[in-house]
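[agent] plan:
  1. take the single chain provided in the ticket
  2. run structure prediction with default settings
  3. attach structure tokens to the ticket
  4. add a short note for the reviewer (M.T.)
[agent] executing step 1
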Amino acid sequence: MHTALVAGWAGSMALYELAVFDPSDPVLDPMWRQGMFVIPFMTRLGITNSWGGWSITGGTVTNPGIWSYEGVAGAHILFSGLCFLAAIWHWVYWDLEIFCDERTGKPSLDLPKIFGIHLFLSGVACFGFGAFHVTGLYGPGIWVSDPYGLTGKVQPL
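[agent] step 2 finished; step 3 output follows
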């Protein structure tokens, strides 16, 4: 439930910030001066384009792809809903006696194995997301800059 709330907040806050953000002058009126909180973190992770046709780097974009600011915010809201449904499922089936064999009274589920499978799959998903995103294989890469922030650009590492 907590993950669903945090992901939902991040997605909805990103959509709100995109609604009030003015990308026309990124030099004299940058995002942090406009009170943005979520968009700067998204930009540091390599998200620079919008479905509105603008880019934080100053150019216009004709095909921003799925993983633009709006796409990432929508994905957070979608996965927030999925985590909420999972939390509801676990709340409804909290009593593990439901999963016991009525004849023997022993659990019919191997709970440590199920927990291990869940941990393994979530670890693979997190590692895969990070590896593919940062290396640029499937994703933009990551924002790399000099110490003063003058020559920054998105590139794979």
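[agent] step 4 note for reviewer: The radius of gyration is 21 Å.
[agent] ticket updated
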